[in-house]
Design a protein that fits this description.
The protein is mainly beta. It has a single domain, classed as 3-methyladenine DNA Glycosylase, Chain A (Roll), CATH 3.10.300. The chain is built from three helices and eight strands, in the order H-E-E-E-E-E-H-H-E-E-E. Strands 1, 2, 3, 4, 5, 6, 7 and 8 form an eight-stranded antiparallel β-sheet that branches.
Amino acid sequence: MSIIPLNQAFYEQPTLTLAQELLGKLLVKETTEGIAAGYIVETEAYIGPDDKAAHSYGNRRTKRTEIMFGPPGHFYVYTMHTHHLVNVVSGSLHAPEAVLIRALEPYIGIELMQQRRPKAKRLEDLTNGPGKLTKALGIDKADYGLTCDSKLLYFAEGIQPTAIQTGRRIGIENSGEAKEYPWRFWIEENRFVSKRS
C-alpha cells in the first residue's frame, strides 16, 4: 500500500479552512509494532493569541507552546491529565494557531489499535476522542515538533466527506466567550465522531 504524505503547502491554509480540509485525511503513525492509521472525522481549531481557549492565548510562549510560534506543518503534542493530544500547527510564523485532531475512523492496523486499547469493547470506542486516538495509534510526547511529512507520523490523502457539520468546541467551559465559537468540525453522520452536537 502506497501512502504519500501531504505536501507542506497544505498546512499553509487559514486555520479554520485547514480544520475542515483535514476531515477525511489519513493520520498515519509508524512504529516498530507496525502501522496504524485512521481517517480524520472530527477537528477543532484554536486561534491564539485572541482565543481564550488556546494555549497560546495572549501570545503565551512557554516550553510547551514554543512549537506553535514556528511555521505551520509541525505536530504539537501535549499531555492533558493522563492522555496525549495531537495537534497540527497552523497559522503563519509567530502566529500561534493549531488544529486539534479529535476523532478518527480506524483504517489500518485495527488489531494493533485494539491491543493498545483493550478496554474498548466496540470499534467506535477505539478512536472517538482525542486521548483515545493517540493511545490507539501510539502517539506520544516523543512526536512533539515532528514535521507533518515525517516518516513516523504524518497526514495523507484519504476520503472526501459528503457533508461537514460545525459546532462549539468541547471541554473549554472556562474560556469566556471563546467557548461559544463554532470552531469544531466533523463529518456528518460518521459514527466515530466523539459528539454530534
